[in-house]
Amino acid sequence: MPELKWIKSSHSEASANNCVEMAEAGPLIALRDSKHPELPWATVSRAAWTEFTGALGSGLLRTES
Q1: CA of residue 57 relative to chain centroid, distance
Q2: Where are the strands (E) in the chain, listed by range?
Q3: Per-residue tens of pLDDT for the chain, all 65 residues
Q4: Is 59 left (phi over 0), alpha (psi -120 to 50) or beta?
Q5: ∠ Cα 61 39 13 (to 5°)
Q6: CA triplet 52, 57, 63: central angle to 5 degrees?
Q7: Which residues pair with 32 in a beta bridge?
Q8: pTM for the full model?
Q9: Where does residue 44 rank: exposed (0-12), middle (13-18), buried (19+ CB within 10 A)?
């Protein structure tokens, strides 16, 4: 697999290293903890990621800071 291009969550501060990062990994979306990028990361289907981010955007899921 080619090296992944990780993208920091738009809810994170630019200088913060305390967030979720995602990367496109072929047919999957890879997710990792920016505090520990050396640890294994998780993958979800694009459909699951779209449903999750849609629920966040519509207010069906709440995020706590």
Answers
A1: 14
A2: 7-8, 20-25, 28-33, 42-45
A3: 568 999 987 766 666 667 889 999 999 999 999 889 899 999 999 999 999 888 888 887 776 65
A4: left
A5: 50
A6: 75
A7: 21
A8: 0.75
A9: middle
